[in-house]
Amino acid sequence: MTWRVGILTVSDRASRGERPDESGPLLKQLLVDHLQADTQRYQILPDDQAAIEACLTEWCDELGLDLILTTGGTGFAPRDVSPEATRAVIQREAPGLVEAMRAASLSHTPHAMLSRAVAGIRGRTLIVNLPGSPTSVRENFAILLPALPHALSLLQGEPGEESAHRPP
């Protein structure tokens, strides 16, 4: 199955053209290489909660994307609001995904414990916040990758591995 994906980079400086977005294009390449996903939307927004919420809501409700990955805005800086925007639009949290990312990232840097990333579900769309640095994006994507196909299949109403192999 080809997953329909949106990538949202949250960065004041990248949105103003003051620096290139490296994490968004990296995510697009990782998705193609490892999930054969179709990135249908890619956008750069400033650290503005209302704008992030509006984008996430549109991509879930109007476009019906399967997966949205955000990058940036998950730290302690006053303008880092990706988790708040995500929490405002999701209907169900998926805390195990961010717990796994934080736990694995701690082996690389103690700063991983400062991540406030959120993951959750709106309708049939999974939304996951990733950090802003390309290195952290690559590391965290690798942690998510083994679980993503199964999670996305479950959201689309396809039988999961466990239920598919369970005797009648």
How would you characterize the overall build of this protein?
This protein is of the alpha/beta class and 168 residues long. The chain has one domain: MoaB/Mog-like domain (Molybdenum Cofactor Biosythetic Enzyme, Chain A). It contains eight helices and six strands; from the N terminus they run βααβαβαβαββααα. Strands 2-1-3-6-5-4 form a six-stranded mixed beta sheet, sandwiched between helices. The longest helix is centred in the first third of the chain and has 13 residues, at 23-35. The model is unreliable at 161-168 (pLDDT under 50).
Percentage of residues in DSSP E strands: 15-25%
- Structural class, from secondary structure content? alpha/beta
Q: And the CATH topology? A: Molybdenum Cofactor Biosythetic Enzyme, Chain A
**Architecture in CATH?**
3-Layer(aba) Sandwich
Sheet bearing the most strands, described?
Answer: 6 strands, mixed
**CATH homologous superfamily identity:** MoaB/Mog-like domain
State the strand order across the main sheet.
2-1-3-6-5-4
Number of strands: 6
Tell me roughly what share of residues is in helical segments.
Answer: 40-55%
Can you count the helices?
Answer: 8
Please identify the top-level CATH class.
Answer: Alpha Beta
Low-confidence stretches: 161-168
| Rg calculated over all Cα atoms | 15 Å
Number of domains: 1
Order of helices and strands: EHHEHEHEHEEHHH
Mean pLDDT: 94
What are the SSEs and their pairings?
Elements: E1 4-10, H1 12-15, H2 23-35, E2 38-45, H3 49-61, E3 67-71, H4 82-89, E4 92-93, H5 95-105, E5 119-122, E6 125-130, H6 134-144, H7 148-155, H8 161-165
Parallel strand pairs: 1-2, 1-3, 3-6
Antiparallel strand pairs: 4-5, 5-6
Helix pairs in contact: 2-6, 3-4, 5-6
